[in-house]
């Protein structure tokens, strides 16, 4: 383990909540209250609310949705009737409405339409009995309770046509014109369009149509260009978010068709399907329980009450959208889509994908500050220019005075005042960075799309950012660090090791019969024997599949064994007790209770063991030690150890009533055997763990397996050094940690690297301790019981393959391939989001500072500014939308994983960024002001007419300014690295935007001069413009040798709203 990775991060990370009186632009990374969200909205300076708040949570709509949910829950039948009535008048009713067609139904199915509707709607037990219970209903629906419906696609399509598809109507996708309309609502652009309209009408009235339309027309064109580019960018983002939301909704469920368990999309379910249910699943449609063991359903999503409802033959009705809280079973689908209350509710609730992130809100704070400065500057420029204009101090290009009181006409004077107003408003457009907060959504949309390719589905936007700050990852072992491809490789049966592990011929028949009975009946998996002699298919969890496959090797006939005994009661596997049991009736007088679970825990409950000849021997201390040593040896070989035990039970001790409340005996058991299951480490995990160590992110393993197995896998993965494997508290058992005092837990939490035999509650305790110590904690989990830890963690990572729906809903990111290397990729992307935003901020602030200072100095000193309204709008386009597209979509680099985690309170503008910004801005201001005031002499334009020389000089200043930004865009890519060109060709969008900007700049000056009020430049001036811009490259290189202070620059000012952790400062100071 790299030194220092276990140290606590600074206390600055510890503050989660934003307290009253603190900065309004700080919100928690998870579960922010509506009060926090309202406060920053009220504090923000906004010129285009519809665009600025597009990707934020609509608080009013959220309240409306909650009210609507309550109405739907209490008036579900009325709402459904209203919805169907509303849809009846639409032409595309057939596409959406899933109402049952009477005439088609009566031809194909012998089911009474009204009764089926009432059964789904009212959960009427009388009707249920009338149709013959679940068996009768399945016959009417032409389904089989064991084999399901036929998998034939034509049959499934017929059922969808008659009973409807398991989908519900969605809101139509917003067209690009919606985004164009939103972009038009920007207050500054509206003012500019009004000014352009006045300028256009007055210009054509005074100078004629041929020449008078240029000033107003060029502003109109520039405004429409800004609107078009902005709307196109926003539209593309919207499409990306919609695609990601579709992926979130597309839940994969198990379904039995033709006797085989298949995995299908929830949208593909049809009436008549048989669906297995297990703990953590979402009930995918309305249905009737076929069978269930301890099946408990959380119906809070439908009823609004946090109440767990037990389901059995007396209460068999299941509602779509609810969650399985405990147990397992199977259901017959009787209602889908809009014919379910869930579908009807989802159809009526408008989908709101808005969610502001902490970084987005902090950027609103930055935009607020810049905007206030920009507005002040624009106001000052407006006042100065108007004073100079109306007092006769503003000159025309030919040297004449623009306005003379009593001489200049009203129209001409008004035109001059409008031109000055246009310039001032355009300065506001440049100065107020409306696009800055939206750059977060741009980089998040880009990152989320790319993360999908890296097998990570983001459920909450804020998790992308928070992952960049993660200081520790608490990872599961099975399926995350290992491949989850389990096979039995070692077995002890009858008190001795089987060699080979699948040869049971030396065992007495009674021993193997008991073992096979326990394997076949005490399982949630199944074995499908193909009727055509094809390959046998085993389904279930990886552990169940490994044990069932081994059972087949030692002679198990799954179907035959299950038919010889009947299940009386099932106690599903419990992650707290690490075992699961089943009570069987073998004959009228013979009953067996089988247990399967963690080997060392089950061994402790055994008072006897079964020998090879079938005799029961007492479990003395010597034999107990032998079994314990066998288990420890397997654990050291990184094998998962599972034991099988049973006890015979007398018929008189079996309860005749309330079997579901029967507490199966857990002690005085007889040990049958122990198996060792191999689950190899995933390839690449060791390198991924090493990468985390380098990045200052400590990886901790939290597993339910025994400590020996956990240690062996941890050493294999590189989480533990071999020399640390035996030392405590590096390695600890969940029970030991659980029983410590809170103070002791906090004292050792940092040191824990491996926690074995942990329960979900132990994982939650560890997460809480680490958070109190100041860590930013990421947690992986797949089970329903992991939900509290996933919710409590700063970033909850659920597993896409092995994870339950409950775990996924509690998580922030779903790892689609369950691979730890994908978790590390998420860390890279999290850091990339933050880094890309910083690149864009550095670039935008440089343009802001340079443009504002140049215009203010020029306006105050000469009464005119070198950049006209159209040119400023073009600069705004380069700086805002195009700049964000170019810099916010930079792919992550390996260098990101060589830094320490980003502090959650770290300033957005670091000292390194301030240094780079000041160097570039001062250079641009100095050079361009020199050319603005003395350009005619320096550029040797004395022989030109006064008017033409002034136009060439202004055009040159504008051209040089734009090329400074183009070249500085490269510098912004690498704020801390000297080689700014590294990997530049990998970002094709960046190259395309730089190329397009250059081409448009050439076209603007060389071919659209009259339209943009520019003059053509000769090759020498072009070369000089490019050279001035190119100087920014060596300047940036040399500037990175300038040291920066350790203390953040913002901390010198009282209005500082962001704090940073000391470890980051020291590192940056050291670098510099």
TrEMBL record:
EC number(s) per entry: 7.2.2.10
Q: Which GO terms describe its cellular component?
A: plasma membrane
The reaction(s) catalysed by this protein are: Ca(2+)(in) + ATP + H2O = Ca(2+)(out) + ADP + phosphate + H(+)
Q: Which Pfam families match?
A: CaATP_NAI, Cation_ATPase, Cation_ATPase_C, Cation_ATPase_N, E1-E2_ATPase
Tell me the enzyme class: translocase
PROSITE patterns to which the protein is assigned, alphabetical? ATPASE_E1_E2
The Gene Ontology terms for molecular function here are: ATP binding; ATP hydrolysis activity; calmodulin binding; metal ion binding; P-type calcium transporter activity
Q: Does the keyword Ligase apply?
A: no
Q: Which InterPro entries would you find in this protein's record?
A: ATPase_P-typ_cation-transptr_C (IPR006068), ATPase_P-typ_cation-transptr_N (IPR004014), ATPase_P-typ_cyto_dom_N (IPR023299), ATPase_P-typ_P_site (IPR018303), ATPase_P-typ_TM_dom_sf (IPR023298), ATPase_P-typ_transduc_dom_A_sf (IPR008250), ATPase_P-type_domA (IPR059000), Ca_ATPase_N_dom (IPR024750)
Q: Which domain of life, per UniProt?
A: Eukaryota
Q: Does the keyword Metal-binding apply?
A: yes
Q: Give the record's keywords alphabetically.
A: ATP-binding, Calcium, Calcium transport, Calmodulin-binding, Ion transport, Magnesium, Membrane, Metal-binding, Nucleotide-binding, Translocase, Transmembrane, Transmembrane helix, Transport
Report the main location listed first in the record: membrane
Q: Could you tell me where this protein is found in the cell?
A: Membrane
Membrane topology recorded in Swiss-Prot or TrEMBL:
Multi-pass membrane protein
Membrane-crossing residue ranges in chain numbering: 179-200, 212-231, 366-387, 420-446, 840-860, 912-933, 989-1009, 1021-1039
Regarding protein family, the annotation reads:
Belongs to the cation transport ATPase (P-type) (TC 3.A.3) family. Type IIB subfamily.
What's this protein's function? Catalyzes the hydrolysis of ATP coupled with the transport of calcium.
Protein name (database record): Calcium-transporting ATPase
């Amino acid at each position: 383990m790299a030194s220092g990775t276990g140290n606590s991060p600074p206390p600055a990370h510890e503050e989660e909540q934003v307290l009253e009186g603190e900065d309004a632009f700080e919100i928690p990374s998870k579960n922010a209250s509506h009060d926090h969200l309202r406060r920053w909205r009220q504090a923000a300076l906004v010129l285009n609310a519809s665009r600025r708040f597009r990707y934020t949570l609509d608080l009013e709509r959220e309240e409306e949705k909650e009210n609507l949910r309550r109405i739907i829950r209490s008036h579900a039948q009325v709402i459904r009737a209203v919805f169907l009535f509303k849809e009846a008048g639409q032409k595309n009713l057939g596409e959406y409405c899933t109402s049952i067609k009477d005439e088609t139904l009566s031809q194909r199915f012998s089911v009474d339409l009204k009764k089926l509707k009432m059964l789904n709607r009212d959960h009427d037990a009388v009707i249920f009995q009338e149709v013959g219970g679940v068996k009768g209903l399945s016959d009417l629906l032409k389904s089989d309770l064991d084999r399901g419906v036929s998998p034939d696609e034509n049959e499934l399509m017929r059922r969808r046509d008659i009973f409807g598809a398991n989908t519900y109507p969605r809101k139509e996708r917003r067209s690009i014109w919606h985004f164009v309309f939103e972009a038009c609502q920007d207050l500054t652009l509206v003012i500019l369009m009004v000014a352009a309209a006045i300028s256009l009408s007055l210009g054509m009235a005074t100078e004629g149509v041929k020449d008078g339309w240029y000033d107003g027309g060029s502003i109109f064109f520039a405004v429409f260009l800004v609107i078009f580019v902005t709307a196109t960018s926003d539209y593309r983002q919207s499409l990306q978010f919609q695609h990601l939301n579709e992926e979130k909704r597309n839940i994969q469920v198990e379904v039995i068709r033709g006797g085989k368990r298949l995995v299908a999309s929830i949208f593909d379910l049809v009436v008549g399907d048989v669906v297995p249910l297990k703990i953590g699943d979402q009930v995918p449609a309305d249905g009737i329980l076929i069978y269930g063991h301890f099946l408990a359903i959380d119906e809070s999503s439908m009823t609004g009450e946090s109440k767990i409802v037990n389901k059995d033959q007396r209460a068999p009705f299941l509602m779509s959208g609810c969650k399985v809280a405990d147990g397992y079973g199977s259901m017959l689908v009787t209602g889908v889509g809009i014919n379910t209350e869930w579908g009807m509710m989802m159809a009526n609730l408008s989908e709101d994908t808005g969610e502001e992130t902490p970084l987005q809100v902090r950027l609103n704070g930055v935009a607020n500050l810049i905007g206030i400065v920009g507005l002040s500057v624009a106001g000052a420029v407006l006042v100065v220019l108007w004073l100079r204009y109306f007092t006769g101090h503003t000159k025309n290009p030919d040297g004449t005075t623009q306005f003379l009181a009593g001489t200049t006409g009203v129209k001409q004077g008004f035109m001059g005042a409008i031109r000055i107003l246009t310039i001032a408003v355009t300065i506001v457009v440049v100065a107020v960075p409306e696009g800055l907060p939206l750059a977060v959504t741009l980089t998040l949309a880009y990152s989320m799309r790319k993360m999908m390719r890296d097998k990570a589905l983001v459920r909450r936007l804020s998790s992308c950012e928070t992952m960049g700050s993660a200081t520790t990852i608490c990872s599961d072992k099975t399926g995350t660090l290992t491949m989850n491809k389990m096979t039995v490789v070692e077995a002890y049966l009858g008190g001795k090791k089987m060699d080979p592990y699948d040869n049971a011929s030396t065992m007495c028949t009674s021993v193997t019969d008991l073992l096979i009975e326990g394997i076949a009946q005490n399982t949630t998996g199944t074995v499908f024997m193909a009727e055509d002699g094809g390959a046998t298919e085993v389904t279930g969890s990886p552990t169940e599949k490994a044990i069932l496959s081994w059972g087949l090797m030692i002679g198990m006939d799954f179907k035959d064994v299950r038919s010889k005994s009947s299940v009386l009661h099932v106690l599903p596997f419990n992650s707290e007790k690490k075992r699961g049991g089943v009570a069987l009736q073998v004959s009228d007088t013979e009953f067996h209770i089988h247990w399967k679970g963690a080997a060392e825990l089950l061994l402790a409950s055994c008072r006897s063991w079964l020998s090879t000849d079938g005799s029961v021997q007492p479990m003395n201390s010597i034999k107990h030690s032998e079994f314990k040593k066998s288990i420890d040896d397997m654990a050291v070989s990184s094998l998962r150890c599972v034991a099988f035990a049973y006890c015979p039970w007398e018929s008189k001790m079996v309860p005749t009533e309330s079997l579901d409340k029967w507490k199966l005996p857990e002690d005085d058991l007889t040990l049958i055997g122990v198996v060792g299951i191999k689950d190899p480490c995933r390839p690449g995990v060791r390198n991924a763990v090493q990468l985390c160590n380098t990045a200052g992110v400590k990886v901790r393993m939290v597993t339910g397996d025994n400590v020996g197995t956990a240690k062996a896998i941890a050493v294999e993965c590189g989480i533990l050094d071999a020399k640390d494997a035996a030392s405590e508290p590096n390695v600890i058992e969940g029970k030991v940690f659980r029983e410590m005092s809170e103070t002791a837990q906090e004292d050792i939490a940092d040191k824990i690297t491996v926690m074995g035999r942990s329960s979900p509650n132990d994982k939650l305790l560890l997460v809480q301790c680490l958070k109190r110590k100041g860590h930013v904690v990421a947690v992986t989990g797949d089970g329903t019981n992991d939900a509290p830890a996933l919710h409590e963690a700063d970033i909850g990572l659920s597993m896409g393959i092995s994870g339950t729906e409950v775990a996924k809903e509690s998580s922030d990111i779903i790892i689609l391939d369950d691979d730890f290397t994908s978790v590390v990729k998420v860390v890279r992307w999290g850091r990339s989001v933050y880094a890309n935003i910083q690149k864009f901020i550095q670039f935008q602030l440089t343009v802001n500072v340079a443009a504002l200072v140049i215009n203010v100095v020029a306006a105050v000193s000469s009464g005119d500014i070198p950049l006209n309204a159209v040119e400023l709008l073009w600069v705004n386009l380069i700086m805002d939308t195009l700049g964000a597209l170019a810099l916010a979509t930079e792919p992550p680099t390996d260098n990101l994983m060589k830094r320490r985690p980003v502090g959650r309170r770290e300033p957005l503008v670091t000292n390194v960024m301030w240094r780079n910004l000041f160097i570039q801005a001062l250079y641009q201001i100095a050079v361009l002001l020199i050319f603005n005031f003395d350009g005619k002499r320096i550029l040797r334009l004395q022989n030109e007419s006064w008017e033409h020389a002034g136009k060439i000089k202004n055009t040159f200043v504008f051209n040089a300014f734009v090329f400074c930004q183009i070249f500085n865009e490269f510098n912004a890519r690498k704020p801390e690295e000297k080689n700014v060109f590294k990997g530049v060709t990998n970002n094709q969008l960046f190259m395309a935007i730089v190329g397009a900007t250059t081409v448009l700049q050439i076209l603007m000056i060389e071919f659209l001069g009259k339209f943009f009020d520019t003059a053509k430049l000769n090759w020498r001036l072009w070369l000089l413009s490019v050279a001035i811009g190119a100087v920014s490259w060596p300047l940036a290189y040399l500037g990175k040798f300038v040291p920066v202070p350790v203390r953040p620059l913002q901390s010198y000012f009282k209005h500082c709203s962001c704090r940073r952790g000391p470890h980051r400062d020291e590192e940056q100071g050291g670098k510099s």
